Amino acid sequence: MNPLLYRPPPNPHFPMMPYLPGPLPQRRDIQEEENLASVALQVQKKRFYVDVKKNRRGIFMKIAEVSSDGRKARILLTLQAAVEIKDKLRDLIDVLEGIKSTCKNSAQDLDEIKTPESQPANSLIKSHVVNYPYRRYFLDLKRNKRGHFLRLTMVSTMNRIQLAIPSQGMLDLYNAINEMLEKWWDGLEANDNKSVNLPESKSLRFDNRTLYFDSSFNRFGAYLRISEVRTASRTAITIPGRSLSRFRDIINGLAEDLSNVKVTKNTEEQPSTNEAPNTPDDSETNEPLVNGEAS
């Protein structure tokens, strides 16, 4: 082969990587969590875990339920939310103790109490709600044919997770949460919230949606967060505290105008009581109008 006619293909060019002695640094996962403490509870055929973990956002608590068939359900909450849930759980435990004392006075066993026919299954005895901007927790003390139990629910954006704790494990769960908080909760954020003295959250339910009004504050000041939650969607707006007076005036004005429109519409549709009703003559009763033309 003539070397003047043959041209070898060019060698591929690869970037030169500098040599670094030692092992390469491992890539850290964003969702990496560090387990700080854990408590396991065995209640009937279920296992519950109360874990305190840490990630890049801070320290948080995880409550998990593992059923007999291996299915898992996990609820995440900040330590501040865990403090409120602990207090609500203590109240429900007191309510349950009152029911137990009543059953003892009537010489009945709490576990053998059946749901009366007048009450539906899973009848609700008492409920608490813990509101946060991005999560909402429900603590429901219920009773069914098997006895009393606690339904702990976390509702977030397009997500709903539920845990069912039998009545025998409510006190153990309270003690586990309290033990974790005594070790890892410093209470600084709670003291800040007490100094600000924020109003209690409100909710409004109508049709197939629920509105939540949550007050909070950050480095820019206090603000109001209004969330609209539907079955498969969630939207929210935030209003600074300095604009709430103007927002209230606009809402009050629109509400008054809409109420006037409704009253005006009703008065126009209803005939006046002073006018005589239009009664056709006897000769016109059997002769209907044709194309809107009067005879």
Strand-helix topology:
Blueprint: E1 34-43, E2 46-55, E3 58-66, E4 72-78, H1 79-105, E5 123-131, E6 136-144, E7 147-156, E8 159-166, H2 170-184, H3 188-196, E9 202-206, E10 209-218, E11 221-229, E12 234-240, H4 244-269
Antiparallel strand pairs: 1-2, 2-3, 3-4, 5-6, 6-7, 7-8, 9-10, 10-11, 11-12
Helix pairs in contact: 1-2
Biased composition (Polar residues): 261-277
GO molecular function, one term: DNA-binding transcription factor activity, RNA polymerase II-specific
Organism: Schistosoma mekongi
Describe the structure.
A hairpin with a 2-residue loop joins strand 6 (136-144) and strand 7 (147-156). The radius of gyration is 33 Å and the shape is extended. The chain contains four helices and twelve strands; from the N terminus they run E-E-E-E-H-E-E-E-E-H-H-E-E-E-E-H. It has helices at residues 79-105, 170-184, 188-196, 244-269; strands spanning 34-43, 46-55, 58-66, 72-78, 123-131, 136-144, 147-156, 159-166, 202-206, 209-218, 221-229, 234-240. By secondary structure, the protein is an alpha+beta fold. It has two domains: 34-195, Secreted effector protein pipB2 fold; 198-254, Nuclear Transport Factor 2, Chain: A (Roll). The protein has a four-stranded antiparallel β-sheet. It has a four-stranded antiparallel β-sheet with strand order 5-6-7-8, covered by helices on one side.
Task: Provide keyphrases for this structure.
Nuclear Transport Factor 2, Chain: A, four-stranded antiparallel beta sheet, Secreted effector protein pipB2 fold, 26% helix, 295 residues, extended, disordered C terminus, alpha+beta, 2 domains
